[in-house]
Each structure stands twice: as structure tokens, then as C-alpha cells.
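Recap for those who missed Tuesday's class. We walked through two folding examples back to back. For each one, the amino acid string is listed first and its predicted C-alpha cells come directly after. Nothing is annotated here on purpose, so try labeling regions yourself before you check the end of the notes.
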Amino acid sequence: MLYHQERHITHLDLDTFFVSVECLRNPALLGKPVLIGGSGDRGVVASCSYEARKFGIHSAMPMKIARRLCSHAIIVRGDMEAYSKYSRLVTNIIQDTVPLFEKSSIDEFYVDLTGMDKFFGCQLFSGELKKKIYKESGLPISFGLASNKLISKVATNEVKPNGQIEIPFGNEKIYLAPLSIAKLPGVGKQTALLLFKMGVETVKVLSEIPIEMMQNLLGKSGTDLWRKANGIDETPVVPFHEQKSISTENTFQQDTIDIHFLNSELVRMTEKIAFELRQQNKLTGCITVKLRYSNFETFTRQLTIPYTNADHIILKTAKELFAKLYERRMLIRLIGIRFTNLIPGNYQISLFDDTQESINLYQAIDSVKKRFGEDLLIRATGARKV
């Protein structure tokens, strides 16, 4: 228990991040029901303002339904480049202010303030950081301060928008008790429905179910859920700079100058690690292409991009980098590609201009790859000649 007692974790969450960025760019949107996403009937809602949520609209909802619920809603096409820029701005502000933080998504952060209570006071420090972020970025942000990541995240969600709260150590279970089980992170619709049918509606009731029963009901996830209901979370804050890269490279059996072969290898390798990126539920913010010539000279080019893990965006960037890199007519012995600046996230937020069918296509392709092997389904340009 000493481990929990010494921890002070602040969860920071930018309020309706995409909408807030759009309001900064166009103040006329403030206080209006705003939908971010594709404007066509087959588009999806990537984000929406609190004013729009009052009509029952939520993210990932088909735009056609959202427009029926609120006919006077203002639809804004998403701009991932702008959102990535502001996300990096806030990241830099936090990085300059605290010694240890984790970027858990494009608009969420965990800050480990353990030990700060002896000097400055964690609540006061978090409040000052909140003000600093708003002053330097113009973006409203909420925070929850608690003894672990779970409680701090739940608390933040409860006080949004533009709120702040501290849950003192020892009050974790008391705080969670009256909340709906749907408020616990990781409780999906199916699990919630199952528990509701059993009469389990609040976290208090869930916490009182024997752990063995939860294991029998949901397996390992049942154990995890029981721990959450009891306010237990020992997950560490993972330093942002330690986020790993995802990369692959290929040294050819014979040095080559065959541009078609090199392009097909680039496509194949890029698709391979883009699939891996999505399997890890991550987005990349920087792509690097590497070439090694037959004389062993090695050159790289990289480009910072809006956060994404969509093949069509990543492939376009990789090809552009390769075209700029391959200026010499010398034999190539190695080609490589690397994704860095990784953050948790899914590809739906990158598909503002795409339809629900596009999202479904990505999900279907990944499902086939996951079940039968990633090499079974590839782009024709990435296929190796037999």
C-alpha cells in the first residue's frame, strides 16, 4: 500500500480537442453545435462540441444521423495537420514544466507528481500547469489528481469541461462507488450490457462481487475489471521520450537499381509496419526512409506528419521521401522505413474526409491479416514477382 500512498498522478485531458482547435481558428463557432468530420451523408463524426452532444450526437456516429438529430449543426471538415500541431504545442509546454509525463493520446496526458506534495503541493502545481497550457495554447483543459492513473482519468471525465478535482488517497473506492459501471475505462458496450442484465449498475455493486465470480464470468478481463472497481491500478506513467519506434529494413541478396523492385519493397515494408502500428493502437507523427548504397554510404530522410496510421497517407509520404532520397544512380543494398513519435490512438480520427465504408474497409483488411497472416492481403504494387 505504501506504493499507492507515495504516488500523485495528474490526468490532463484537452476538452473537445478538435472542436476547441477549430474555435481558436474561427471564434464564431464558440457556443454552437459543431461537428467535425466529412460533410457527406456517408461520413462519420470524428468529434463534436458539448452543444451538439445535448442532441444525442457522439463521435463515430454516421454524419447522416447526426444531421437528423441536429439539423442546424455546423459541420467542419477535420484538419489533422492543425490538430497535430496543437497537440505537439501542448506536449512541449508539459515537457518544459514537468520531469515525468506520458502522452496517452493526441489530447491526453498523465503527469507523475510523486514527491511534489512535500515542496509545492500537487493540486496547486496541477492548477498552475492547467493555467499555463490555456495561456500559451488557448486550449481549455481539465485535470484529475489521484493516487493512480485509473482514478485520475475517471475523475477528469467527471469534471469536464474546464474542470479540476483531487481525489485524496484512501478515497478511491468511495469516489468510484456511486458511478455507473460504464464510467470505468475499458468497459465496452457488450460488457456493460451483460452486467446491467445481472443487475450490476454501479461500481459499488461491481466491487462487491467476488473476484472468482468475475473470473468465471469474463476470464482475465473479469479480474482486471474487479481491480478497477476497487480502485486498484499500479500502472506506471510511461515517459513520453521512451515511446518506441516501429521499423523494418531489408538488405538485398544482390545490390539493385531496379526502381520498380525498390518501390514494391517500400510498399510491402510500409504496409507491414503500418499494420503493426494499428495492431498496437498507435499513431505515428514522423516517418523516416533509409537507403544504403553498394559503397555502404547510408542516407536518411524524415518528415513530421499529422498523426496517422492509415496506409494511404503513410505510403504517400514514404514514396515522396524515397523519391527525394534516391538521387544517385548507384546500386542499392538496403532500404528501410521507420515510424517514430508514436502515440496511442486509432485511425478513425484521420479519416475526416472518408466514409464509414473506408473505415470498415481498413477494419476488414486488418481482420483478414490478423486471422490469416499479414502477407496474405497486400497491395498489388507491393507484391513480389515469382
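Example two. Treat it independently of the first, because the proteins are unrelated.
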Amino acid sequence: MNIKARAELEGITPYALGQTIEEIKEQYGITTVRKLSDNENVYGTSSKVREAIMQASANLSFYPDGMTTGIVEKLSSHYQLDQKHFLVSNGSEEIIRLLTRAYIDKNDEAVMAEVTFPRYKTNVLIEGGRAVTVPMVDGRHDLKKMQEAINEKTKMVFVCNPNNPTGTIVAKQELLSFIANVPPNVLIIMDEAYFEYADSEEYLDTMSLLDQYQNIVILRTFSKIYGLASLRVGYGIMHEEIARELHKVRDVFNVNQLAQAAAVAALKDQAFVQDCSAKNSAERDFLSAKLKELEIDSFPSQSNFLFAFSNRPVIQKLTENGVLVREMPLPGYKEAFRITLGTHEDHEFILQIVSQLFHERAV
């Protein structure tokens, strides 16, 4: 074909998606699949959300509110922060794209961890920028090396906290020091998609830094603990001047009406969020400890998933039994994978499968 795409697209591959539930059922002849591969909320969503969607469905012939007024008002009230600091998006990934579209020029650089959410790198490359990746240490961001990688070409740094896919966080004082030493003309993108799951005293509340550091952009989402992954609603919290620039490059009507109604209802039900967080913490401790007994270790997680690794074969056996996880190679280990935390019953089932596998190999 003689029609050539932009040179920046060479070498970029689409985001990798795993097999569907139906494909797994057909391939292995099973009827039940536990999808623990995409960090979704296994406890579903608030009943208030379903009611709100039903009411909003009466107005499907109208365009949605292009300024997402209802969500912005509710976020402002929830965080006790002026509305001018919020921008609502089609998933928090859209804000990543808007940031690179608005601020990355050709040959600009963006610093990020080597093992983190891959869409940072993709969006930087699409705009003609250069992604500078810094190796991690024990599954954590190496903020010292990331600081050293910043130069006169650097436009932004990405810190995913808790990090996807490792689930780890960076220590509070370490992150405070890093933020203080990033030049004010470099954007600090704090991706906090999983922050509602973090319960460590070492987790830094970056919201408190917005007045002091005008170059911070905080990304959060309704896809995870709120259980709205299929509706795609995210939001950014930032200085009003940054929000003004992003509004220039965002799509019109970027968040559909049903999604807007669902997000407002979800924010109202904080009891649901707290319940999910408590269950997640208990199951995180339980599963990580039990897997460790079976020689499957994991990085210390503050999210709703574990990054697990072992020198024993596990992934194929889980898949054959209808447990979907995301395979993610890790040097030095035979198998490594990210597994979304499920219900207690899910975890008992998983542990039974793994125990049987190890028993069979020992016989």
C-alpha cells in the first residue's frame, strides 16, 4: 500500500488484550471463567449506579453535558477543592493522551519507570517525543535515577502510584523529596488509579501538594474501585492553567451521558467504596501469604492485584481451570503474572488448583 502513516507510528504496537471469556470457554471446554486479568472490581458496582443509569436512559436522544458539570460539582464537593482544578475524561488514559498532545513537541522527553502502565510511552512516541525509561528496584520506581534522567529536554515525568503492574508504592518522604526537586517547568504526572486501595501509612496524599507545586497533575478513575470500567470515566486534578490547555485538545462530548450519571451516583455511595477497600485489603493479605507458602512470591501490593512470580509453572494450569491472569515476564523467574484480587471463594479455588499442581509434580 502506498499510503504511509506517520513515521512516529513505526514500532508502536496496539495495547495487548488477552483472550476473551468465550474464547477460553471454547478452548478448554469449561463453563465458568474467573476473569482476574484486568484489575476490575470483583464486587461489581453500587446499586445506586444502576438506578442512575436507568433514569438517564430516558434522554438518550440528547447530547451529553460537554463540560461534565454534574461530575465536576460532585468531585469538588467530595475533595473540598475548587471546580477549576478538575477535568473529566473518557477514562484517565484520555488525560494521558491530552497531556502528551498539549505538551510534547517533537524530540521532547518524558521520564517513566521501565515497568509501568505502557500507555505513557505509547502516547509520548505518537507525538514524536522520546520515552526515557528507568529500571525499577524490587518492583518500585527508582526515583533517584528518574531524577537524574531529567534534563533540559524533559517535559514530563510519570509516577504510577500504586504502580501498575507491580502494585508497589514509593515511600512518602522519598516521593516528597522527588517532587520538590523536579524543575517547575516539568510536569509531574501522578497516576493514582488505585489510590483508594492503598492503606499504608507510607502512601503520600498528593492532593495536599497542589497549592505548593503547580506542575503536579493527579490522575484518578472510576474504572477500578467504583466498578465503572465499561463506562470509561476518569478525571484529572491539576492547576487551572493546565486544565485550560487540556480543554483545548480534548474531544467534544468526551464522556457519554450514562457514564456521567453513573459517576455522580458512584461518588455518592462512599460506603460501597469503603466496603470494597476493606475486603480487598483482607484478601490481599490472605492470598499473598498463602501463595508464598506455595513458593509463589509477589511484590508488596497496595492495589487490587498482585504481581506474582515463581520458578514453577502456574499460568497454564490456572487458565485450563478457568482462571484468567495476565502473564508478564520477569527476568530470573520461570513465570510471572499479574492477578486481580478476587473474592475469598475465588482465592480458595486458586489455591486448590496450585496445591494440586505442585502435588502432582512432587509425585
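Answers for example two:
The chain has a mean pLDDT of 94.
Residues 198 and 302 are 5 Å apart (CA to CA).
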